[in-house]
Amino acid sequence: MASLQQQIADKFLAALAQRKEIDADKVVELRALLSRRKRPKADEFIRVFSAPPGGEVK
Questions:
Q1: Is residue 55 part of a domain?
Q2: Is 37 part of a structural domain of the chain?
Q3: Band (55; pLDDT cuts 50, 70, 90)
Q4: Which domain, by its residues, includes 17?
Q5: Which of 17, 20, 42, 53 is most enclosed, with most CB atoms within 10 A?
Q6: Using CA atoms, how far apart are residues 51 and 28, in angstroms rounded to an integer?
Q7: How far is residue 7's CA from residue 9's CA, in Å, rounded to a whole number?
Q8: How many domains does one find in the chain?
Q9: Is 57 among the domain residues?
């Protein structure tokens, strides 16, 4: 059985995946970030949301 934190993260990510404004790759990155054992840092969230679609900065 998943922990309460994991259940909340799963529900949040499922709702986020339904949004048209959020790229599917960002949801995958967020899922990986939230599934790690240690707590994510603010810089990691900034990296996910500030990267352009496809992940490459020109």
A1: no
A2: yes
A3: low
A4: 4-50
A5: 17
A6: 13
A7: 5
A8: 1
A9: no
Nearest CA to 37 out of 11, 1, 12, 3 is that of 3
pLDDT on residue 3: 86
In the numeric block, the tokens 């259940």 are attached to 7
Amino acid identity of residue 32, one-letter, is: A
Contacting residues for 54 by C-beta, under 8 A, at least 6 apart: 25
- Rounded-to-integer distance, Cα 36 and Cα 6, Å: 10
Paired tokens of 9: 């993260």
The pTM of the whole model exceeds 0.85: no
> Is residue 45, in this structure, part of any structural domain at all?
yes
- pLDDT tier at 58, thresholds 50, 70, 90: low
pLDDT (tens digit per residue) in 17-48: 999 888 889 999 999 998 887 888 999 999 98
